[in-house]
Amino acid sequence: MSTIALQALGLETSHLVDYQDRLVHNQIVNDLDALNKAVKAAGFEFTIASAHRDFHRQASIWNAKFSGKRSILDKNSIPIDTDSLTDSEIVESIMLFSALPGASRHHFGSDLDIYAKNCLAPHESLQLEPWEYQSGGPFYEFSCWLESSLSEFGFFKPYDKYRGGVAAEPWHISHIKTANMMTKCVTPNTIRDAIAKQNILGKAAILAELPRLYTQYVTNIAKN
Ligand SMILES: [Zn+2]
C-alpha cells in the first residue's frame, strides 16, 4: 500500500505536524492559520477539541463501544441496550457517532473538531453536542460565522446535517483539497485490508457489509 494510503487509513504519521498541541496534516497549516486569525478577528477564540487520531486510537474507541465498556448513544443521546442486538446492528449503532477504524476522517490530519472557548460561560464545559451550535446554544454565532466564511479558507463541514449515515457534527471541519486527496485512498478494499489484519470487534459483520457501510457512512457527506 502507498504511504499516502497508509496515512489516509490512520496507519502512518509522517504527514503530521504540531499545531496548537494537536497533530494536523502539514499541507493545511497555512490555511488553518489564516482561518484561525480570521476567527479571532471576528471575536471568537479558535479552539481545537480534536484533530488527528490514528487507527489504533479509533480501534480502541470502537472496541470499547462494541464490548459495552463505553456506551453507544442513540440519536437522542440515550444509551442503547445492545444485549438484544446482532453484531451487524451493533456496528450500525456505533457508526452513527463513531467511524470504523480506517475510515475516520480524523486519520487524515485535514479534519478538526473546533469550538470557541470564549463563548462558554465559566461554569460550562464543551459537550460536542449539536444543540451547542444551534440557535440558543453557546456556539451559535460562531457556527454561523463558520457557515459563511469557511470556504474562503478552503474548508467545509462534511457532517453539516444528518443524511442517513453519520449524525450531524457541526463542529467538524475539513480542509477540502487535502481531504479529497486522502479520500481517494479510502475504498472498501483498502479499509478491508486495514481491518482484516487488526483486532477489531465485530469484524465479520463489518466485512460482510463493507460496500454498503462505505456508501452509507463514509462517502455520504456534504458536497464541497
Ligand atoms: Zn470530528
Automatic annotation (TrEMBL):
CDD domains assigned to the protein according to its UniProt record, in alphabetical order: DD-carboxypeptidase_like
GO MF, one annotated term: peptidase activity
Coiled-coil parts of chain: none
BP-aspect Gene Ontology terms: proteolysis
Domain D-alanyl-D-alanine carboxypeptidase-like core: 23-176
Protein's UniProt name: D-alanyl-D-alanine carboxypeptidase-like core domain-containing protein
